[in-house]
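Suppose a classmate hands you a notebook page containing two proteins, each written out with its sequence and a corresponding row of structure tokens. How would you begin to make sense of it? This section walks through that situation. The first entry is reproduced here exactly as it would appear on such a page.
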Amino acid sequence: MTAETKSSGGLGALYMLMSALACFFLGAIALYSSGIGLVEPKFHRAAGFALALVVGIVASRNRREAKAPATGPRAAAHLVVDLAMLVAGVWSIWSFFFVQTQMETALYDVTQADAWPALAGLVVFLELCRRLWGWGLFGVGAFGVLYLLFGQDLPGILAHTGFSLKEVAEALWYNTNKGVFGSITNIVLSTVFIFIVFGVLLEGTGAGDTLLKFAFLATRRTRGGPAHAAILASSMFGTMSGSTVANIVGTGTFTIPMIKKRGFSPTFAAGIEATASSGGQIMPPIMGAAALVMADLTGVGYLNIIVAALFPALFYYFSLFSAVTVEARRQGIEVQAMSVEDQITRIDLVNSVLFLGPILTIVGSLIAGFSTSAAGFYAVIVLLGLSVINPEVRSDPSRIWKSFLKGAQSGATLLIAIAAIGILVGALDSTGLGLKLANVIATIRGESLFSALLVAMVGALVLGMGMPTLPAYLIIILVMGPAIQQLGVSMLTAHMFVFYYGVASSLTPPVAIAAYAAAPIAGANPLMTAFMSFRLGMAKFIIPFVFAFYPTILIIEEFSLLPFLWIVARTCFCIWLFSSALSGFDRRKLSLPEIVARFGIAFTMLAPDPVIHLPAIAVGIALIVWDLRASRGPVQRAGGLS
């Protein structure tokens, strides 16, 4: 071993030690602030970003080394840059803490000297955001800074009155309502962080493996088998993981090979896993932590959010179950006997408590009146206490420690993404650009709510492309939220509407990150997988329009039992017609006129006017009856389609 190799190894160990310590303190602060005592706000935010800075630098260094290990002068240059970023970042965070302290104790105005550390901090966190989250989020944050500095020279509604460097620093750095250290950062640190740690601990204790087995057991008598199991497992796994890609990796490595083995094509196997995994973000109770942020932003309450999200999520998963059933019929796949390894053992039954116990603790704590963060804290405590029942945890207790650090690391990297979101918030709030865009959309929409929602949908999909769920939701609601609320829909409906399209953007070609994560596991073409995911997840594009026009679906707003049951039945019928039309198959291969008719009827039966939707339902029933009668003749197969 050369001296250079030893030096590189020692430096790597130092980086890892720094990251582990930073993750430990971040996790400890999250536990303390959520369940034991309050942390002084400015210290909480400053300490959170300082520790996230360390974790982010180490994580970006590890990714860089994994791609192309650096040696010699190149390695030295990387080290110098990392140290410079660390020093500049700490300087800027200390400046925030100092200025906030001065503002609390005396009349203090941000000076020109204060602007330089703020500018350094913006540059450091945007560069970290680029390294960890890619150019999309970096572009969002960079736009916010550049728009404040140079937006006065832009034409039309984009122009503003102009901001000096000192005013930019005050808006984006030294502000606890907006900007990097603003209210969204406070929500993430005080509420979301503990649930991120909880989700990773849930996986680390073995709950994920048990969920997968129960999913296979529940779907053993269906044609889709492992494809249906993937949908069920991903809905449960995704709600706690908070990441579409993590969900795909966590469940897809098991389900995709089994889906292919059942007879489905690689493209379909990857597509159904990507679609199901992205749906985990809309499934209560955790919804990838977005429900927690939504509750804070809307003031509706966390329990109300998860109740409102339940039926739209069930509609989405019903559409996926329908798509798999139709595809299995099309390919002639039959129900198969359950293998020995799929059967539930006594250990699996015991381990199911690892999932049920903490989830019931969260719901019980909220019903008892505890805060959302306290519910997360108690869930972590219950989970840690129950983890000893898993023999694998008893034989390797370090799994808990590693999961705790991994959860804190996930929270730290999310915090860096939130820095870019905070910059955009500061820019939009300071210039009023969001309200200007809302007026433009109002002009485009004319008098039609449907056309306005269509414009909002396209904007949301474009804004959310390539983004993780929570940052995508935040960006879209900041830009599109005011416009949608001007349409006359409630705040909760507006948030749910853009949230769905923030999730759907992960399935939308060409930047379908969910499909690109699933395709290599299946050995499928990424672009074809993206189009398959888009087709399978098409219901996600329809459901937001349903609850925008029929808010009774959200239960907590304008609920009435008979209208609720009526729209539930119509939506399920619509989804079945839509899924079968997309596949071109129901009980048999559908003709082109039948496909066109099913598409048209599926949309028409959702029209609010009974004069329109009642005849559509009658025609839809007639199409189903016709298919059943025609299928009793000679057996028809799809003829090699896959």
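The notebook's second entry, a different protein, reads as follows.
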Amino acid sequence: MDKHSVMIVIAIVAYMAMMIGIGFAVSKKTKTSSDFYLGGRKLGPLVTAMSAEASDMSGWLLMGLPAVALMTGLAEATWTAIGLAVGTYLNWLFVAKRLRVYSFKIDAFTLPDFFSKRFGDNKKVLTTISAIIIVIFFIPYTASGFAACGKLFSSLFGMDYLMAMIISALVIIVYCTLGGFLAASTTDFIQSIVMTIALFVVVGFGEGLINGFENVFNNVSSLPGFLNIFQGHDVATGAVGSYGALPVASTLAWGLGYFGMPHILLRFMAIEDKNKLKLSRRVASSWVVISMAVAVVIGVVGYSLMKEGIVPAYSDASAAETIIVDVAKFLGKFGYIPALTGGIILAGILASTMSTADSQLLAAASSISQNLVQETFKVKLSAKKSIILARVSVIVISIVAIFLARDPSSSVFRIVSFAWAGFGAAFGPIIICSLFIKRTNKVGAIAGMISGGAMIFFWKFVIRAVFAGTALDIYELLPAFIIGFIVTVVVSLLTKVPEKEIVDTFDAVKAELNS
């Protein structure tokens, strides 16, 4: 290993050590299962905002989105970013404060727990179904984060992919099992800063290598449809296609996913002061817009770097997910300080993947240890044993995710898109109905949750497979979300009116919000 590579390693190791150190420090404050899963509702507004968005963006921001822009042009990447930006803002505007007030009122500290108490589900049917959905979709989601880390080290140092992925996963496991939600949120805040630095450094350095943005855009302007948000250009094959109203609506539907993301919704529930959520909303929305815009520009710059031979010629979007890694490696050729900067960029990729994987691990672990074991199966545990079970759950889920991530050819973007759709369709309609429609009842919530989640599988693996290339070949989140919402409302209206106690609680929450 040359001296420049050593500088990169120093930056990465220092970053990973800092994350573990935070886990040790916060572990002293984690004494109950509520502390482990919700941080005792003690998050400040900035940590709430940035940890929510860092845990949301994942390796998708620094690897998946630039790769899509690089290999297919602006259309899909831009409309996806717009959908996510709008979804982010609306989620903070309409859901955040209501969920914080409601979850506090009914003393719920996990999402399945909220559903159960909101609808008076004493038999824990909603708890069980939502916990199972969380495990089903979060394990592959977590696996995608582990895969991104494995690709990083494998590409950078020529390490065996599996070994690289396991090492990075172990770091995440250590600070998660030690400090729980508070550790994850604190590290996410730091990780969001590192991610931001990485994004801007890559854009600046890449643009400098091509001698200005004028040359960058001259290179891509020769590609028909590449800079047109209503067309697409497959760089690998040269094929050009239209991007009309239906694909645009399908891609914008990414924004619907925010309403059902457990790891984001938990941040809303955990803020210390509900009145500071306005500040959180402004910070979070601004960061999302800026970071995604920069990520898309990285993809455009990446094509010029590929054309000039500065980075390898990528065969598809999955291969192009290493664009930022390749730029960071190239930095090492210019001396020790640039090499150290390259290490910070790579730490940014680690930050983006770790910030999501830790939140996903905790959400999945809470579903198993708290919602299934203790609530569904009525296993009574002391506070100490509950913490132990939570930490064991994190480890078990991580092992399964590592197994699923063993294939280095898997696409981070495609895995994330499927899991995102699953949560958006299964939980999004229920969250909206539970917070805004008083008439929604337990039966409607169960029916909507099952239909929305099931429609994701049916639409992706049946409808899109049979009708590929037609108007029905759209992102599965859009039809599944619509179906889930309609089923929830219709079934609720056709079945028994909610009990008086549930209605009274809804009215009390509404009154508090209006006061």
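A careful reader of the second entry would note: The mean pLDDT is 84.
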